[in-house]
C-alpha cells in the first residue's frame, strides 16, 4: 500500500511538470502537409442536461441555441485542420454529453468522414439517450462503438451522484443496456470504482449485473477528482480513499478476466476494437472543441474553455488555443513510458528508433524501479521489450495523469476567466 502511494505521488509530481504550460502560448497548429501520418481526432461536446457533482470534465448546462452555434463553429474548426494537411484515421467524440443534439452531431460526423480517412468512430452517451431516434442515426452514419456512462447500478450510489433522477434506477439502466447488445459493433459499459459509498458487496453486485449483460467491452476506471471538485465530492459522497483502490481493482479483475481480455489496465474487452483511452492506440491526437486537449508533433495544447470565445475565434478563422507547451524528448519518452505501461507492454527498441536516442539509457531509472517492485518483466529473448506484471501500477499512473489533466482544466478555466475580466 505504501508503494502504491509513493508511485501515485511520484507520477503526480511528474504530470504536474509535464502539464506546465508556457506563458507565451503558441496559437497555431503545426502544418503537416506531406508527412504521411494518420492521427486520431477527438471532438469535445461540453453540454449536459444536468451536471454530475463528481465530474471534472469541461461541461456546462445544455442551452440549445448556444449548442447549435457551437456545432457550427466545431465544423469550421475541423476544416481548419484539413487546411493544415491533417488526415485522421479514427474519430472519438466525448463530453459532456455528445448526443444532446443528434442532428448536429451526425452532420459533424459526416463532415469528418468527407474530409478525412476515418476508419473507426466511437461516441459517448448517457443512459437517457438510449433511444432509437438517437441510436439509429448514429449507426447509419457509421458509428462503430457506443460507450455508455453507467458508473454504477447501485441505486444508493446513483442517488448520491445525482444520476438516479436523471437516468433512472440501476435496474432500468441494465434493461436498456441489455436491449442494445449487438446493435453496434462494440457496446462499452463505462464504470467507476472507489466511490466513497462503494464496498466489496455492492461492487460485486455491479460485477454480477455486468456479467449477466455480457456487453462487448467494460471500462472500469477509478474515481478521479480534481482540486476544484474535491470539496463538492467530499460533501456529497464522502472522502475518497485511494488505499482501497487495489482491493477493488483485484475484485474487478477476478470477476472479468474469465470472460474478457485486457486491452489496457482498466479496459476489459471481448473485441479488439477502439477503447476510451485512444491515446494508447494513437501516439498523436488532435483535440477540437472548447476545452479539448491535443498532442501533435511534440506540442501539447488546450483550446479555450470559454465557449463564446471559442466560437468567436473559430468564426474568425483562428485556432482557439488557450495554452500550449512544446515537450522535450525526455518528457515525450516519459509520457510514452506511462502510456505503454497502461497499455500492458512496451519496447525500448521501438522508442529508440522513434526518438533517435538510446531509450534504455534515458529510461534506465524508471525501468529499473518498476522491475525491482515487480511491475515489469523483460523478455529474455528480446531485450528491451517489457510486459507489465502488476497492472494496478498502470491504473495508478493513469489515475494521476487524468487528475493532472483535470487540474489543468481548472487552470485553463481560471485563465479564461481572467482574460475575460481584463478584456
| Biggest sheet statistics | 9 strands, mixed
Mean pLDDT: 88
Total helical segments: 16
Q: Report the helical percentage.
A: 40-55%
Question: What is the CATH-assigned architecture of the domain at 23-269?
Answer: Alpha-Beta Horseshoe
The CATH C-level class name of the domain at 23-269? Alpha Beta
Can you offer a commentary on this structure?
With 423 residues, the protein is of the alpha/beta class. The chain contains 16 helices and 17 strands. Helix 8 links the parallel strand 7 (186-193) and strand 8 (217-222). Helix 1 (2-18) packs parallel to helix 16. It is globular, with a radius of gyration of 21 Å. The mean pLDDT is 88.
Summed up:
The chain has 423 residues and is an alpha/beta fold. The chain has helices at 2-18, 64-83, 102-115, 132-140, 155-160, 164-167, 170-180, 200-213, 227-236, 245-256, 307-315, 329-342, 348-355, 359-362, 364-372, 392-422; strands at 39-45, 47-48, 60-61, 88-95, 120-125, 145-151, 186-193, 217-222, 261-262, 267-269, 285-288, 293-296, 299-303, 321-326, 345-347, 376-378, 385-388.
